[in-house]
Specification:
The protein is α+β, with helices and mostly antiparallel strands. It has three helices and ten strands; from the N terminus they run ββββββαααββββ. Strand 8 and strand 9 (145-154) form a beta hairpin. Bound molecules: zinc ion. The site of zinc ion has 8 residues, from loops.
């Protein structure tokens, strides 16, 4: 689920609330896809806060697969819980399928990371001239001073359904955003 942020500018301009989006995917030449992980950044080209690619280290994503393969890990327990109702059909089968897909995606993410060359891009315009928050949540905006981006929780925003090459370049394609609802609340 995307994060939302309160942004406080050092130059005294009013605070801004910012909501992350989701539904971004890398698409490979064979047509298969994995989720693209977005995070907040400032884009010097768009001149605004945007969703940018979050490119983790190879070590981090390799650890994710190791955790998934360890049934005692927290990451694996999301898929291996046998608490009711997950101890009965069709949940057992559904969870087993999701677990397999998660391991498959983690494996593919490692393969992707090994060959990824470009620095992270803005998901709106594709620019690599972007600034991420430092460890203290401060982000330096060229020509405007700094801002503090404080994560205030999670938000349930639309799925953009935008597709990117493995190097983070948007694939031009007409898509419609989709929406997530609680089961039974689909409109
Ligand atoms: Zn941009």
């Amino acid at each position: 689920m995307p994060a939302c942020y309160q942004i406080r500018f050092a130059d005294g301009t009013p605070d801004v609330e910012w909501f992350g989006l989701r539904g971004f995917y890398y698409e490979f030449l064979d047509g298969t896809q994995i989720g693209l992980r977005p995070t907040i950044a400032w884009c010097c080209n768009c001149q605004q806060f945007i969703d940018a690619e979050w490119i983790q280290s190879l070590e981090e994503i390799t650890n994710e697969l190791a955790e998934l393969n360890d049934p005692t890990s927290l990451r694996a327990s999301l898929f291996t819980s046998n608490e009711p109702p997950f101890d009965e059909s069709p949940y057992i089968e559904r969870m087993a399928k999701l677990y397999m897909e998660a391991k498959d995606e983690a494996t593919r993410r490692i393969e992707w990371r090994r060959v990824r060359h470009s620095p992270p891009r803005c998901l709106i315009c594709g620019s690599t001239d972007i600034r991420f928050p430092a460890d203290d949540q401060t982000i330096k905006i060229p020509g405007r001073g700094s801002a503090v981006v404080e994560c205030t929780g999670m938000c349930s925003t639309d799925f953009c359904n935008w597709f990117y090459t493995p190097e983070g370049v948007r694939i031009p394609r007409e898509t419609q955003p989709s929406y997530w609802h609680f089961p039974g609340e689909e409109r």
